[in-house]
Design brief:
The complex is a heterodimer.
Chain A lengths: L5 H44 L10 H8 E7 L5 E2 L9 H5 L8 E7 L5 E10 L4 E8 L6 E8 L13 H4 L8 E2 L3 E2 L3 E3 L10 E3 L5 H16 L2 H7 L2
Helix pairs in contact in A: 1-2
Chain B lengths: L2 H8 L15 H6 L4 H25 L8 H23 L1 H7 L1 H4 L5 H9 L6 H31 L1 E2 L2 E2 L3 H5 L11 H18 L8
Antiparallel strand pairs in B: 1-2
The chains are: A alpha+beta, B mainly alpha.
Chain lengths: 234, 207
């Protein structure tokens, strides 16, 4: 076996690392626009899904501009903030800020029958990683019109079930205010919600931690909009 | 392609299969085989990574200082994997999401490091490239077989298309939830090894 000097080994490593770094940064820069586009399309698909509109990656952009007619940003006192694009707000960074400084996006969908739906993004901590979603409210800003949840790495077959229809569907028609003024959110109950309870849905058997995390996410994200909801209901 | 090269390509399909005979790369075989589509994409990714890492390492083999050869191999494999990951994210975003961390974990797939150490370090680039493709396919084949069984019985679909007709569900058939769990993938790999060993006696260890 050839004997390599230390100088050779150092030179070899340095040259190799520089070549690899160049190659990778070039690839990352070239592919970035495609990747950003994918993330944007996925977000639009999620927002559409929360108002029960199915889309594919191909038609999502068109459907989004057709149905999502308005969007605005609020602070936690329910006042509109000017000059911010609701779609570009990253909830992850907002949640790390103090409550009073957060920008809270709202999307307004106009449905085929002309009625409006107010869509609010959610983000929280699941068992293994982040969970997020969108919830849409009817114009009374109390009754849930639709929900969509997603996650990064919850347990397949257990916590990951939050993305399934059977879990998301029961949220529709639930109300987040008790006696129309007291904010109660929607509870996710282990052992099943009592029949007819307007503020609770069934949890996932074996997915208790994810269920509880989702309940906490609904509560902490929706309560920030409480003032706006109370003042703007129709 | 000469007979020797063809043998190198086809051996890993069966008698030298990296998954069922050498028992390498089991972890990802369990994780990404719930549905057929991610399994196919994962298989393709591993074929690309093994083939090109083998090619690059074999091409550099005489200039790699032996003392840092594992580091060099890791750098090459990691570069390939990151490139594959970036391409998947750009062009097949939904699959890339389903594969999540497992694309990154191709780096730790023992098949790749194994082939680099055992083959590419001592052979010319072209045979190494073929060896990489062969081993990648050997891995992909097992993934696809396991994923076909799991998706068919676990979700009643193949590649997302409904295979089990609604009438069968109406008659009381339900999807086997066990198939979705990683445990079942391990059992299926076990069954494949069992069938393979009882058919090809030369694989059995001497008592």
């Amino acid at each position: 076996m050839r004997n390599f000097s230390n100088t050779y080994i150092y030179t070899f490593s340095i040259v190799m690392v520089v070549i690899v770094a160049l190659l990778l940064s070039l690839a990352a820069m070239q592919l970035k626009p495609f990747q950003d586009k994918n993330i944007e399309v996925e977000k639009k698909q999620n927002i559409l899904a929360s108002v029960h509109i199915n889309s594919t990656p191909v038609d999502a952009v068109d459907l989004y501009s057709k149905y999502i007619t308005e969007s605005f940003v609020l602070n936690n006192k329910g006042e509109k903030l000017e000059g911010e694009d609701a779609f570009k707000i990253d909830l992850k960074t907002e949640i790390s800020k103090p409550a009073a400084q957060r920008s809270l996006p709202v999307f307004v969908g106009t449905l085929d029958n002309g009625s409006k739906a107010y869509i609010v993004p959610l983000r929280g901590k699941g068992l293994w990683g982040p969970i997020w979603g969108y919830v849409s409210l009817q114009p009374d800003l109390n009754t849930i019109y639709g929900t969509i949840f997603d996650h990064q790495g919850e347990t397949p077959g257990l916590g990951a079930e939050i993305t399934m229809d059977w879990f998301e569907k029961p949220f529709t028609g639930k109300t987040i205010f008790k006696d129309s003024t007291e904010f109660v959110s929607v509870k996710v109950l282990k052992g099943g919600a009592p029949e007819g309870d307007p503020h609770a849905v069934d949890a996932i058997s074996g997915g208790t931690i994810t269920s509880k995390a989702l309940e906490a996410m609904l509560d902490t994200c929706l309560v920030q909009y409480k003032t706006y909801f109370l003042n703007n209901r129709q | 392609m000469s007979g020797k090269n063809f043998k190198m390509l086809s051996n890993p399909f069966n008698l030298q299969n990296p998954v069922t005979v050498q028992i390498l790369g089991i972890c990802s075989a369990l994780a990404v085989t719930v549905k057929l589509k991610p399994a196919i994409v994962m298989g393709l990714s591993v074929i690309v990574v093994t083939a090109f890492s083998n090619l690059v390492i074999s091409w550099m083999r005489n200039s790699i200082p032996p003392r840092i050869r594992i580091i060099v191999q890791l750098v090459v494999v990691a570069t390939m994997v990151i490139l594959v990951d970036q391409v998947l994210r750009a062009f097949v975003y939904d699959v890339s999401k389903q594969l999540s961390v497992y694309v990154g974990l191709i780096i730790t797939n023992c098949i790749i490091m194994g082939r680099l150490e055992a083959f590419a370090m001592g052979n010319k680039p072209w045979p190494s490239f073929i060896d990489g493709i062969g081993n990648g396919i050997g891995y992909a084949v097992i993934l696809i077989v396991v994923a076909t069984v799991r998706e068919l019985f676990g979700s009643g679909t193949l590649l997302g298309f409904k295979i089990v007709p609604q009438a069968v569900y109406d008659a009381g058939y339900i999807n086997n939830g066990m198939m979705i769990m990683p445990t079942m993938a391990l059992i299926l790999v076990g069954v494949i090894i069992w069938i393979q060993r009882s058919y090809f006696k030369q694989l059995n260890e001497k008592e």
